[in-house]
């Protein structure tokens, strides 16, 4: 059996994450010429160019894209296996963590989280991935390392941690009648609403509550993201629905007003989820603490 150099997998992971020989060399604390030689070895081993020139940059080949998630998962598992049981200093952590979160949460917690990571663990990188991975095997295959949001679609082995429960509020432009005079259920239902759904769904729990009161709202517009809804609300008389607490910062920045929804709605539970393979990984454990503390601080400042 031919001997396998597992360092090649580490180099391949860095090259595919960075998309650059220089970037991969810096990440692995080696020189660009040495990384170029390693890339040449990878090309011979895989019988594939791996990265090809596109303008001034490099882009992965189809074969490299096929291998990326599996290689990343394998390398992370190896680091977890060989990591000492002691707690690593944040400044010594080296990892790229893929986080899935919707734009409601990203508008609030991404910036303070990034500031924490950059100041304490500059060797770590955060990669925010789209919601399209939600409900797929992305966490099992290592494409997603952490998910932050409403956790209602997870595999049974997934580890979770609650972060915060938040209430839903109405969001309208400044000067909208609801801003100065919060509506009762009938006035609320009579307004034109904007829905937010990645899958294009119009109805939700709020419609169930209205139906119990013999009411029905009109939703003439549905958009896939919260940020788009806020910009539409700013320039129209449409009424949006959003979370208080974590989601409250974005409406404030856009000069929008919020009002209490005149319905008995359950709170929205926000949590954090990860695959067991990352449970004891020092970088993941440290980052999970930072996310927890960031969320607690944000909610505390808005109480």
TrEMBL record:
InterPro entries linked to this entry: LysR-type_TF (IPR050389), LysR_HTH_N (IPR000847), LysR_subst-bd (IPR005119), WH-like_DNA-bd_sf (IPR036388), WH_DNA-bd_sf (IPR036390)
Family annotation (Gene3D superfamilies): Periplasmic binding protein-like II, Winged helix-like DNA-binding domain superfamily/Winged helix DNA-binding domain
Pfam family, one: LysR_substrate
Residue ranges of the TM segments: none
Keywords: DNA-binding, Transcription, Transcription regulation
Domain HTH lysR-type: 4-61
Entry annotated with the keyword Transcription regulation: yes
Keyword Endoplasmic reticulum: no
Similarity annotation: Belongs to the LysR transcriptional regulatory family.
Protein name: LysR family transcriptional regulator
Lineage start: Bacteria, Bacillati, Actinomycetota, Actinomycetes, Kitasatosporales
